[in-house]
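Exercise 7 asks you to align residues with tokens for two separate proteins.
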Amino acid sequence: MEIIIQKNPAAAAEIAARIVARLLRKKPNAVLGLATGATPLLLYKMLAEMNLDWRRVATFNLDEYVGLPPEHPQSYHQFMWENFFRRVNVAKKNVHIPDGMARDVPKFCSQYEKEIRAAGGIDLQVLGIGGDGHVGFNEPASSLASRTRIKTLTRRTRRDNARFFSGEDEVPRHCITMGIGTIMEARQCLLLAFGHRKARAVAGAVEGPVTAMNPASILQMHPAVKVCLDEPAAARLKRARYYRWVYANKPDWQK
């Protein structure tokens, strides 16, 4: 796990964008796992401005609300097309986002897993982290071996997301999310976190015990994880000085 601490979100997102760009230039048909929410917006804006070729790239989104049609303004379908996909030359047939209107949710989830495998697996998974350590919509106490499935959102998550709706009562109670086991099969994970609200969860994920009560902590067991943070999100890290020293003193071949 490489911890990259930058002074602000823009600097951290720029490093993350360079990581994604490097992959796409090396592998034009890369498979990306993508996240939604406020955290990756800067990353997506920067990627859209980098003149990369997305025609052969396949994408799989982490999650979607159950009960929201794709055209709903707060659906993650709408989020991704509005904030990213319409700005790059990605092929619509290569975009995969969970179907919140699926009639048979377990069947859909099984099929989503098959589609990821058929694409060759995810090369790089973009992740955010919730204030309680959730990744995707894998809430605390989620199985660390879980696969794509339906989940019930906690009151905290619904309260946190209420700002995107007209109120908490409008936030769906259920979602479809990639499981932690699914996320862990990505060849590389790229986690972004900004702001003081994420500091406790980040510290637990990076330096705490591996526990289902902080689902992101399982990333300690992944062989290739980069964590891009701003200063406030890194505020509770006990070894922050060491992480900065490591990043500043990489051998040339790693830069």
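Second protein for Exercise 7:
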Amino acid sequence: MPYADASYDIVTCAYGVRNFADMDEGLREMERVLKPGGQLMILEFSYPTNPLIRWGYDLYFTHILPAVGNMLSKDKGAYSYLNRSVKHFPYGEDFLKHLRDAGFADAQAQPLTFGITTIYTANKTAHRS
């Protein structure tokens, strides 16, 4: 990112991290531009763990959304990408590990909407040892 080190008090990203060309590099850049004590907040899709919610989610994202998307945009692949990208995103504890590996502390995940989306928060440590 074209910003100086320790430029921001907070960095946010909504539904974008799973689209980064290199997720870990992107997270390290977020950590780099944060001031010591700054906060990271990421809102990202996740994959529901409840079997009934997961079944409905899969039905919607695998069949209904691509069909409607194709009718509206005439592009069959445009709306099937969403489901594939969400399924491959390291949600929950797996994503928290990526945050910690990028240098963040106090990484937490708060699932919302039956686990279909999650808010991740983390902090940049005030001092590195």
